[in-house]
Write a structure and sequence with these properties.
It is a single chain. By secondary structure, the protein is an all-beta fold. It contains no helices and 16 strands. Strands 1, 2, 4, 5 and 7 form a five-stranded mixed sheet that branches. Strands 9-10-11-13-15 form a five-stranded mixed sheet, with no helix packed on it. It has a three-stranded parallel sheet with strand order 3-6-8, with no helix packed on it. A hairpin with a 2-residue loop joins strand 4 and strand 5. The protein is globular, with a radius of gyration of 16 Å.
Length: 167
């Protein structure tokens, strides 16, 4: 990994994969050089070999574009002990599952129904997704980030009586 260390906290921010040699499962480490990995800043970079990412307990902040160039990413898993993030069926959410953060672009789901507890869809959540052809938005959804469906090939269905206040 390419990373930087915060000299005040000694925490590590992963900036990018150092090369495209990682094949299959990418495990973000708990520590690098004895220091906790707490952030993923920016995109991890272009890699067509990573199919799954596993996030550890320490991760506190993930860039909106962290997984945007992992073309074959089909699954994101999060340690159940992580206090900021969670995953369900390989999809990344905040801990409360009220915000959908990242829907892996290679997840093979033709139609996806956003659960009613989700109130917000984050920036680049469905970025360049070509596998999912239809996304159905719950009428309880309140906010869709402007770039949530950036360069997605499918269609988004929002009910007329939806609570979406901003897109």
């Amino acid at each position: 990994f390419k990373y930087k260390k915060n000299n005040l906290t000694n925490n590590i921010t992963i900036l990018q994969l150092s090369d495209d040699q990682i094949n299959g499962i990418l495990r973000i480490p708990n520590k690098i050089d004895g220091n906790e990995v707490t952030r993923i800043g920016g995109s991890l970079g272009k890699n067509s070999k990573v199919t799954e990412v596993i996030l550890p307990i320490n991760i506190e902040n993930i860039s909106d574009v962290a997984f945007s160039e992992l073309d074959n990413l089909a699954q994101i898993e999060v340690s159940e002990l992580n206090e900021q993030y969670s995953s369900d069926d390989g999809i990344l959410y905040n801990k409360e599952k009220t915000k959908l953060i990242a829907f892996p672009k290679a997840k093979k789901v033709e139609e996806y129904y956003i659960e009613e507890n989700v109130k917000e869809i984050g920036e680049y959540a469905f970025y360049k997704n070509s596998k999912t052809k239809k996304v159905y938005v719950s009428e309880k959804l309140e906010k869709i980030a402007q770039t949530a469906f950036e360069q997605m090939d499918g269609d988004i269905y929002i009910k007329e009586n939806s609570k979406v206040k901003s897109i």
